From TrEMBL:
It comes from Pelagimonas phthalicica. InterPro entries: DUF427, DUF427_sf. Residues 15-103 form the DUF427 domain. This is DUF427 domain-containing protein. It comes from the Bacteria. The lineage of its organism: Bacteria, Pseudomonadati, Pseudomonadota, Alphaproteobacteria, Rhodobacterales.
């Protein structure tokens, strides 16, 4: 099993898509799994949910459980299934329940404020 660690992400983090800021949080979590790069998870209440639209897409991770997905609806583009959330993760990672993670891609950026 991949070792998963979850710690509070230091500082303040923002998520941008299509040039708009979708959210800013000083309560984000940093999840590290095995050799993968760390993933920043944002509390849902710190994200402009009006920009997100739930999709029917689901995936299952043996270490975290079932993920639900959202598309980002920006003015210029729809980023399909670019956001995921574990609504009922397995107990070992219960801290990320309801938090949102974003797939960084052209037009979608996660930044730590200086």
């Amino acid at each position: 099993m991949s070792k998963i660690t979850i710690i509070p992400a230091e500082g303040t983090w923002i998520i941008r898509a299509g040039g708009a800021v979708l959210g800013e949080s000083s309560r984000a979590l940093e999840l590290t799994e095995g050799d993968y790069p760390p993933v920043i998870y944002f509390p849902r209440e710190d994200i402009g949910m009006a920009f997100l639209e739930a999709t029917d897409h689901k995936t299952t991770c043996p270490h975290k459980g079932e993920a639900s997905y959202f598309s980002i609806m920006s003015k210029s583009k729809t980023y399909e299934n670019a956001v995921w959330s574990y609504e009922a993760p397995i107990d070992a990672v219960k801290e990320i329940s309801g938090y949102l993670a974003f797939q960084v891609q052209d037009g979608v950026a996660i930044e730590q404020l200086p």
